[in-house]
Design brief:
20 helices
Length: 576
């Protein structure tokens, strides 16, 4: 609750006003049966028309005041509930943005989506229910009990006998519902995960004609969610008939004993009618309390899930020196080892050491799974080293703030991610204040200007989600241009020219050397043609650097490098 209070604090006035208006409505509801009783027992009995009129006017006024109370409660509870949910959802989203890759992998993307949307909505609904029904129901119940005791303490025993049965029923449903609602949210996580994977990989699914397989996978996940939901709703559905049965039995007993008391003049007819209304109010308030508490039980599950996100500490955190910035771009790996969180067995990287001087181009070559992408992910701290240290300009990367560190690094990821918006908006991710001339310049260096200029709207061309209206090579060139917009001291190209033809790739590398001659460049590639001109080539195998040097040096001494060259260029490559 302390964590919730932080998000409720800005809406505390609304949170207080909503129950006050609800109390006004409850007071009017409790007054109505008593006024009706007076009309029958005094006005009708004595034939006093004026009395009946005045009491009727009183009932109308009570109804109008009750409407004001109800509308006021609805307005202020909605203001508080939606504002609270907005701030909580924003806090969860900001927290997710601070997560490292390891944190995201731990939660899974689908689960994080569920927690940010559905779980926050469940908490919001429970909160608004609290300041509506959990105010109305208890006070209506207490007021009703006081009223029946005032009318007839003897007959009120009928009501007091029914209350324990309802309480037992509520406690049973709460205990049963907590497990069922927890299962529901986990099944919903699974549905969102399957959907997210299917939509992001829709082209692969269609290319491999696996639509039926994915349909079955989603059908199974959706079926599991439906089954879990049905169990929870079935449990809730039992409450209505059981409560209805208790209410009906109570009403029968009330009329049975109350009727005898009327015949013996212990009660007036109007009092019996008022008594009947109060019993209905008491039992209905207990029923609504039971359902509200069940929603609270579900919200409790959701709050625990949201709290897991808010309480998770990112294993990537800011360094303490806010003045540190990358100035030269020298990179040193010093006895670096790395294992993914929870990984068993040998580390992904073992005892890696090398230095990249400012202005050097360092290529990283190796078989799939040799640790190339993992190695460069350690430079901008997408992951932190397990042992050893990565230094930039002689300073451990963990001493930089994340913003200052990543501001000096341009990164074209292995996965080409572009966002919905114009080409210019995507490029401005690297520099929001960039001029049109700078945008055209970096696009030209990345060899993107040639195809952008042919588009009808040029840089104002709107890209679909993930850049679906561009080819793979076009997306890669835009991603390189976006990285260059930062004027980085260090540029990382993670297999980011794999979809580009050899001629265009050569033009990109030539332009980089000519324009950014002092920038340290890391190139991860599979093609020998991409790395041959690098100042230093690191050959990786099973998470280790087995050799490093220039192309000609490695040709002469590294058998693994020779095999790669031979497999791609043939034996002719060794005759030069």
């Amino acid at each position: 609750m302390r964590k919730l209070f932080k998000f409720l604090k800005p809406y505390m006035l609304f949170t207080i006003l909503a129950p006050l208006f609800m109390l006004l409505e409850v007071a009017m509801d409790l007054a109505q049966p008593m006024l009706m009783s007076r009309i029958i027992d005094v006005g009708v009995k004595n034939g006093d028309k004026a009395y009946i009129v005045w009491m009727s006017i009183g009932m109308c006024l009570c109804a109008l005041i009750g409407i004001v109370g109800g509308v006021g409660n609805m307005y202020f509870s909605t203001k508080a509930g939606y504002g609270f949910a907005r701030d909580l959802r924003s806090a969860v989203y900001r927290k997710i943005q601070s997560f490292s890759f390891a944190n995201v992998d731990n939660f899974k993307t689908g689960s994080l989506i569920t927690r940010t949307t559905n779980d926050v909505t469940q908490i919001q609904n429970a909160f608004t229910s609290c300041i509506r029904m959990l105010v109305r129901s208890p006070f209506l119940c207490i007021g009703g009990i006081v009223s029946v005791l005032m009318i007839s303490p003897k007959l009120s025993l009928v009501v007091l006998t029914a209350v324990p049965f309802l309480v037992i029923l509520i406690v049973f449903l709460l205990n049963k519902g907590r497990k069922l609602f927890s299962s529901m949210q986990k099944k919903l996580d699974r549905v969102n995960t399957v959907m997210q994977e299917s939509l992001s990989g829709i082209r692969v699914i269609k290319a491999f004609a696996r639509s039926e397989h994915e349909n079955n996978k989603f059908r199974n996940a959706n079926g599991d969610l439906t089954e879990a939901s049905m169990k929870a709703m079935r449990m809730m559905s039992y409450a209505f008939p059981m409560v209805g049965f208790i209410m009906n039995v109570t009403m029968i007993l009330m009329y049975l004993f109350g009727g005898k008391m009327v015949f013996t003049c212990q009660l007036q007819p109007g009092e019996i009618m008022a008594f009947s209304n109060y019993i209905t109010q008491i039992l209905m308030s207990l029923t609504m309390s039971s359902f509200t508490l069940m929603f609270l039980s579900r919200a409790g599950v959701s709050f625990r899930r949201v709290n897991e996100v808010l309480d998770t500490k990112s294993d990537i955190y800011d360094g303490g020196n806010t003045d540190l910035k990358i100035k030269k771009g020298e990179v040193e790996f010093r006895n670096v080892s790395f294992s993914y969180p929870g990984q068993a067995g040998d580390p992904v990287l073992g005892n890696i050491s090398f230095t990249a001087k400012p202005g050097e181009t360092v290529a990283i070559l190796g078989a799939t799974g040799s640790g190339k992408s993992t190695l460069i992910n350690l430079i901008p701290r997408l992951y932190d080293v397990t042992k050893g240290s990565v230094l930039i300009d002689g300073v451990d990367v963990r001493d930089y703030t994340l913003d200052n560190l990543r501001e000096g690094i341009g990164y074209a990821l292995q996965e080409n991610v572009l966002f919905t918006g114009t080409i210019e908006e995507n490029l401005r991710w690297g520099d929001e204040e960039a001029s049109s001339e700078k945008i055209a310049k970096v696009a030209d260096i990345a060899q993107a200007d040639s195809f952008v200029e042919k588009l009808p709207d040029r840089y104002e061309t709107v890209l679909g989600q993930r850049g679906v209206n561009l080819s793979g090579g076009q997306k890669q060139r835009l991603c390189i241009a976006r990285a260059l917009m930062k004027d980085p001291k260090i540029l990382i190209l993670d297999d980011s020219t794999s979809a580009v033809d050899l001629t265009t790739e050569a033009k990109i590398q030539t332009a980089l050397r000519n324009v950014f001659s002092e920038m340290t460049v890391f190139i991860v590639a599979q093609r020998i043609s991409s790395v041959m001109d690098a100042d230093k080539i690191l050959v990786m195998e099973n998470g280790s650097i087995i050799d490093s040097g220039a192309h000609n040096e490695l040709i002469s001494r590294c058998s693994v490098y020779r095999e790669i060259v031979s497999s791609q260029l043939g034996e002719e490559a060794f005759k030069e």
